[in-house]
C-alpha cells in the first residue's frame, strides 16, 4: 500500500514536508513507486518546481535498488510529470505556468493562463453531479425514514437500498439479485478487499487478473497475500480459456462488459468458458461491472452473473454513474460465500446509512435512470466528437475498443507512446499511456500496443473542446 | 466475529432461516454466543416463540462444547430473552404479547398492547435527530462545494471537516488537534481497527483494556491478533498503575472522560500515571472519548490527549452526539503513527465525502453546538428524573457513576442482577446487566458488583416515562 502524506514527524525524505510511505513488498514495486509519485504530482501535493531527492538518497531511504528509482524517474520524465536537467536534479515539471506555456506554444499574451486538462481514469465530469435532484431525494428520504434508521444499521446495508438495487440490477444489467444477497460497500475497492479476505479465509492462494488493468487492484490482491497470474487480452476479451492451465487459481477478476482499459467486450464464448471453469473447479468469477450502464453502439450485454449466480460475485458502483464522493457500491454474492463476506465486513456498518437511504430514494424515484440517460447522451456525443476530430486531424490513429464506457483507446505507432505522453504533458494535457496499466509480471520487452487511454468523461463540457483540440495536436 | 444473517444457502441451523455465523476462536466464545443470540432476539430476527436448536445439535454444528451452549441458554433464560420448558425445548420468550403482559401485570383490557422499552447501550433518542437542520447543512454544503469535491476524496478525510474538527475539539475537549493529524473514519470501530492493524504492523502483541467495557471492541482486538490483559477499575477509574507490571503491553485502551459502563472518571493521578507509562515504555494511550460532550455536574474534564499528543491516539464520534447512521468519526493521531494508520486506512477513502462536507458545515455553522446543548439538557433532565424516581420508589438502590454521559449504573444487592434483568424483561423492558460487560479473562466467581446499566438516552421523550416507571417497578 503506497501513500503520500504530509507529515511533520517524518518529513525528512522530501524537504517539502511531503513524505513517501511505501510498503516495500510484493511485485510491482517500481510501478507502485511510479504510480505514487505520479499521483502526488497530479494531485498537487508535489508542487511544480519541487526538487525530488537524488535517486541514490531515495533508494537508500526506501531500502530498494537505485536502478528502480532511476527507472521510475525516467518514466515520469518521459511522461512529462518530472523534468531532469544536468546540475538541477529531478524536479516536478512546471506544466501549467503561463511563461513556459507561452514560450512553447506561441500564445500571444503573457497574461493568458492555459488550463491544464486531465483525461485520466477515475475522474469524471463532476460539474454534472445532479445536486438539486440529490438534495431533493435526501429530503424525501430523511423525511420519511423511521427513527430507527438513524441507528447503526444492518452491517449488510440498508434494506431499502438493497431492494432498490435488486430491481435496478435485474432490469438494467440482467443480474439475478435478491436483496438478501446484496451487500453494500463503500466502493469496488472495499468490495474487492472483503472478497480477497473471504478467499484467503477459504485457503485460496491465487486470483487470475487481466493482463491490463488498474494497478491499485492488483496491489490490493497481492497485499491480501494472493498471487495474481495474468490472463492475456485479445479482441474477444480476456483469454479465459487459459484459466484451465493455470493451477491453483481460486477466482478470476474480469471486466466483462467493457474491459478496462482496452475497451473490448468479453465474447459470449469466453464468458461460457469462464463459467464452465468456475463450475468445474469450484472457482469464482469476480465481475467488475464498473461502467455497464454506458453503452452507445448496440443493446447492452447483460452481466456474466446472470449465467450462474452461484459462481459469480458481481460488483457495481455509484462512482461512475453518479460520483465517487458518495462512497456507495454494491456486490451481489453467491449464497455459499455470504457468511465469509459478511464476516469480512464485520458486525458494524461502515457506509453512511443516510446516503444509502438517499440513493434508494434516488433510484426508486426514477432520478437515477434520468441521470444515467443524460450522462450517456453526453458521453456518447463526446466519444463521437473524439472519433470525428481524430479522423480529420490524425487519420492514421485508430480508436479501438467498443463504443461504450468512459474511456477510448487511441492506438499509436510503435515506440511513440512515451513521446505522445510527453508532448501532451507539455501542452498541459494529462492522459494515461497503455503501459501504465500493464501487469507487473509481463515481460517489459514484450511487444505491446503503444496507445493512449483517454477518459473523455473526465472534464466538464466547457473544458472538453480545449482538451480535445490539445489531444489532436499532439498525435504523432 | 459473530453475525446473524438470513441466508437461504445455510439456513439449516435454525428452521426459521436465521443462521448463526460464528468464528470459533479467541477468548469469550460463550460470551460471544450469548451476545449474538441476545442481539438476534433484541432486533427481532429471532421472533417470539421460535424454537432454538437443542444444545446438543447446536454444539455439534458449531463444533464447540455442549456445556458452552447450555450455559449460554441458561444465561439468556435468566435474563428473560428465552424460555425453557420441559418437553417444549428452548424458545424465544413471548415478551411483548398482550395476553402474557396482561396476565402478569394485571392490566385490564386484553386489547391493550404494552410497549417494549429498550434502555440498552448503543441506542439513542433518534427521534431527536435534527432532520431539518441537517438537510439545511447538506444543502449549503453541496451548493458551495467545488466540483472536485465529488471525486474520490483524500483518503485521510475531507479537509473542510478536519479543519472544523480541529477547532471544535480544541475548544470543547482541550484536544491538541491540527487538521493534518486528524483522520476521518466511519466509527470508533473503524478507527480502532486501523489502530490495531498499525500496532500489529509495529510488532505489538498486547493492548491492555478496562476490565469492564463493550465486548465488541475486545473481540476486535483479539481478532487482530492482540492479547488484551484487563485493568481493574475502582472509583478513580482504570488502575493505570498496574500497567507497569504488565509486560509487553504496547498500548492501553481507556474511556477516561466517563468509563463505560461504570461511569467513573479517570482521576488526574491515574491520567498522569498512564502518560508517564507511555513516555517511559514508548507505549500509547488509546482514548475513546465517546460521550465527552455530555457532562452535567461540573466543568467538563478535558481529554487526556492534551497532556501529550505524541503518546495518545484520540477517538471521537458523531454516533453519540448526532447519530450512528452518519457513520462518521475521527481520530487525532501522533505524528509518528500517521504513516502506519494511513497505510492501514488504504489509498481509497471509505467515508462518504458528501456526509463529511455536511458535517463540516453543520459544525462551523454552530448547529452542532446547538444540537449538543439541547441534547445535554434533555439527558440531564432524564438522569435527574431517574435519580429522583429511584430515591422515592427504591431508596436502597444507589445510582453510581458521574452525572455525565448517556448511561447510569444502578447498584443492586448481591446476587440480584439476573433476577432484576428477568423481571424487567417480563415487563417488556430491555436493559443491560453489569455482567454483560465483564472481561472474559476475569474470574467468573470473583465478587463483582451486581448492577444494571441503564442507557437513559435510548428512548424518545414519549417512551421515557413508561420506561422509567417499569424500571422502578422491577427494582429488588
Write the layout of secondary structure elements.
The structure is a homodimer of 476-residue chains.
Chain A: E1 3-6, E2 18-21, H1 29-42, H2 55-62, H3 66-78, E3 82-85, E4 89-92, H4 98-105, E5 117-118, H5 131-144, H6 159-173, E6 182-185, H7 188-201, E7 207-210, H8 215-223, E8 230-231, E9 233-234, E10 237-238, E11 251-254, H9 268-281, E12 284-288, E13 312-317, H10 318-321, E14 329-332, H11 338-345, H12 353-364, H13 367-393, E15 398-400, E16 407-411, H14 417-426, E17 429-430, E18 432-433, E19 451-455, H15 461-473
Parallel strand pairs in A: 5-17, 7-8, 7-11, 11-12, 12-13
Antiparallel strand pairs in A: 1-2, 3-4, 6-14, 9-10, 13-14, 15-16, 16-19, 18-19
Overview of the structural elements:
The structure is a homodimer of 476-residue chains. With 476 residues, chain A is an alpha/beta fold. The first copy, chain A, has three domains: 8-103, Orthogonal Bundle (Arc Repressor Mutant, subunit A), CATH 1.10.10; 118-124 and 376-473, Aspartate Aminotransferase, domain 1; 126-369, Aspartate Aminotransferase, domain 2, CATH 3.40.640.10. Chain A is 38% helix and 14% strand. Chain A has 15 helices and 19 strands. In chain A, the strands form six sheets. In chain A, strands 6-14-13-12-11-7-8 form a seven-stranded mixed beta sheet, with helices on both faces. A four-stranded antiparallel beta sheet of chain A has the order 15-16-19-18, covered by helices on one side. In chain A, strand 11 (251-254), helix 9 (268-281) and strand 12 (284-288) form a beta-alpha-beta unit. In chain A, helix 2 (55-62) crosses helix 3 (66-78). Residues 1-27 and 96-113 of chain A have low confidence and may be disordered. At the A-B interface, strand 1, helix 5, helix 7, helix 11 and helix 12 of A face strand 1, helix 5, helix 7, helix 11 and helix 12 of B.
Amino acid at each position: 500500500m503506497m501513500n503520500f502524506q504530509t507529515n511533520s514527524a517524518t518529513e525528512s525524505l522530501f524537504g517539502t514536508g511531503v513524505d513517501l510511505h511505501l510498503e516495500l513488498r510484493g511485485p510491482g514495486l517500481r510501478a507502485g513507486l511510479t504510480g505514487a509519485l505520479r499521483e502526488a504530482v497530479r494531485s498537487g501535493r508535489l508542487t511544480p518546481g519541487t526538487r525530488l531527492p537524488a535517486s541514490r538518497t531515495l533508494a537508500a531511504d526506501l531500502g530498494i535498488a537505485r536502478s528502480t528509482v532511476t527507472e521510475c524517474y525516467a518514466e515520469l520524465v518521459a511522461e512529462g510529470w518530472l523534468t531532469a536537467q544536468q546540475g538541477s536534479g529531478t524536479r516536478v515539471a512546471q506544466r501549467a505556468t503561463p511563461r513556459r506555456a507561452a514560450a512553447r506554444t506561441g500564445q500571444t499574451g503573457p497574461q493568458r493562463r492555459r488550463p491544464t486538462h486531465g483525461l485520466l481514469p477515475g475522474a469524471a465530469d463532476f460539474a454534472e453531479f445532479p445536486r438539486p435532484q440529490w438534495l431533493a431525494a435526501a429530503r424525501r428520504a430523511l423525511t420519511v425514514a423511521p427513527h430507527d434508521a438513524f441507528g447503526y444499521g444492518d452491517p449488510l446495508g440498508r434494506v431499502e437500498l438493497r431492494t432498490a438495487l435488486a430491481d435496478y440490477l435485474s432490469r438494467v444489467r440482467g443480474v439475478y439479485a435478491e436483496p438478501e444477497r446484496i451487500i453494500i460497500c463503500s466502493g469496488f475497492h472495499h468490495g474487492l478487499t472483503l472478497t480477497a479476505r473471504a478467499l484467503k479465509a477459504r485457503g485460496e492462494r491465487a486470483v487470475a487478473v487481466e493482463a491490463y488493468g488498474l494497478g491499485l487492484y492488483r496491489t490490493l490482491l497481492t497485499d491480501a497475500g494472493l498471487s495474481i497470474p495474468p490472463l492475456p487480452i485479445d479482441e474477444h476479451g480476456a483469454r479465459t480459456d487459459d484459466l484451465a492451465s493455470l493451477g491453483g487459481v481460486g477466482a478470476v477478476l474480469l471486466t466483462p462488459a467493457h474491459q478496462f482499459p482496452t475497451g473490448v467486450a468479453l465474447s459470449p464464448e469466453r464468458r461460457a468458458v469462464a463459467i464452465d471453469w468456475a463450475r468445474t473447479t469450484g472457482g469464482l468469477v469476480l465481475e467488475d461491472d464498473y461502467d455497464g450502464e454506458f453503452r452507445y453502439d448496440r443493446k447492452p450485454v447483460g452481466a456474466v452473473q446472470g449465467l450462474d449466480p452461484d459462481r459469480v460475485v458481481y460488483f457495481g458502483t455509484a462512482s461512475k454513474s453518479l460520483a465517487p464522493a458518495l462512497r456507495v457500491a454494491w456486490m451481489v454474492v453467491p449464497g455459499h460465500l455470504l457468511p465469509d463476506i459478511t464476516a469480512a465486513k464485520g458486525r458494524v456498518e461502515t457506509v453512511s446509512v443516510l446516503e444509502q437511504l438517499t440513493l434508494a430514494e434516488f433510484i426508486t424515484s426514477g432520478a437515477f435512470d434520468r441521470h444515467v440517460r443524460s450522462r450517456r447522451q453526453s458521453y456518447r456525443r463526446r466519444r463521437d466528437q473524439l472519433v470525428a476530430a481524430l479522423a480529420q486531424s490524425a487519420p492514421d490513429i485508430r480508436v479501438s475498443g467498443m463504443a461504450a464506457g468512459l474511456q477510448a483507446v487511441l492506438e499509436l505507432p510503435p515506440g511513440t507512446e512515451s513521446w505522445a505522453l510527453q508532448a501532451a504533458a507539455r501542452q498541459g494535457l494529462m492522459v494515461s499511456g497503455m503501459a501504465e496499466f500493464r501487469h507487473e509480471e509481463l515481460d517489459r520487452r514484450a511487444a505491446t500496443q503503444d496507445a493512449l487511454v483517454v477518459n473523455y468523461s473526465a472534464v466538464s463540457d466547457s473544458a472538453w473542446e480545449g482538451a480535445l483540440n490539445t489531444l489532436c495536436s499532439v498525435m504523432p
